[in-house]
Amino acid sequence: MIDKKQIIQAFEYRHACKIFDVNKKISEEDINFILQTARLSPSSFGFEPWHFLVVQSPELRSKLKESAWGATAKLDTASHFVIGLTMKAPLMKYNSSYIHDFMLNKQQLPENVVEQKGKMYEAFQKSDFDLLDDRKLFDWAAKQCYIALGNMMTSAAMIGIDSCPIEGFNQEISNKILKEDLGIDTRLYGISYMVAFGYRVNEPRPKTRRPINEIITYK
Amino acid sequence: MIDKKQIIQAFEYRHACKIFDVNKKISEEDINFILQTARLSPSSFGFEPWHFLVVQSPELRSKLKESAWGATAKLDTASHFVIGLTMKAPLMKYNSSYIHDFMLNKQQLPENVVEQKGKMYEAFQKSDFDLLDDRKLFDWAAKQCYIALGNMMTSAAMIGIDSCPIEGFNQEISNKILKEDLGIDTRLYGISYMVAFGYRVNEPRPKTRRPINEIITYK
Hints:
Chain A has helices spanning 4-13, 28-39, 58-64, 72-77, 89-92, 97-106, 111-126, 134-158, 171-180, 212-215; strands spanning 50-54, 80-87, 162-166, 189-198, 216-218.
């Protein structure tokens, strides 16, 4: 059990950190901890449709600046820079061998459960969620990856580490870099977000949020 | 600063709880705390494209069982049952009066910043993220709502409260209930997920996850 006040303090502490202290590096233990909270995140059907690239090479970071207009200051200053990858249709489609193997060998489900769950997954993709289209399936898988994103930023804040989530990048150029410079098979993975970690230089402007009664309705 | 070991314990504690103890109710203080962590979650451009319905009425829960095939046991047993709503195009499109008003009055940005940020948001929607299509825009806004979802489940686990995220519902019927029984303007909001909170009855099967070296690559 963790004290509620301490948790809320971490949520208040977190902000989209625009520029990081280049002289302060996150320890290996701490970055491993942050990535563990991504790993332990939930996802629909438990399929973990993610992979995380931690880009530390100055050359690769410099290359990424060609596409990630929203990340330039973070690529220059972040202690750790993560690209959140999401699995594409060849992996995520209900009839992929990846999904079958995942249920059997990663989730360690008995064969009859694999069959049942596979049928449920097929029905779900064919339901009015309408996930047979590659883009819609990618967006659905990406939603799961945003759970992991939220958890990484929250857990970082809880140990005093700042973060900045980034959607400000050109898809086409980024995915070209992903393939040509980062060695990722872009038929199987696409970028859903980037997220930088480090320690703040400046204090943020006060957080604004709609009051709780504007976002909650009891029925 | 919160102890890393305690945080990881909470992540290990969290599981998709299938059935809750009907005799154990979450206190008002605790449910408010969980919802606060949704409220304080980050979102792209800080636009908070979410609303949360807490469905406590037995009649409405019973009604929801008509559409939410993946939620029946949770609708029967959860202490609190939340429907995560996501804003649709009439609110989220770059030229909506909602977005303009939000930047000015909720985010309290000066007029010149509102203009700049509005242009960036327009460019982002017109970029190769390709968000001019209503479904794609909804899915993008929903991704932000999954950050809040992750945070609610994590913060619940940190205070010993169980949860279950739910995508197992018929979109058409659920959105009909949303409109007709829950009084929500479905031109403006759609359901992205449901999530139940309460206290477990049964212990879960051991958590499976791919090992960390299969999901992280350093570059």
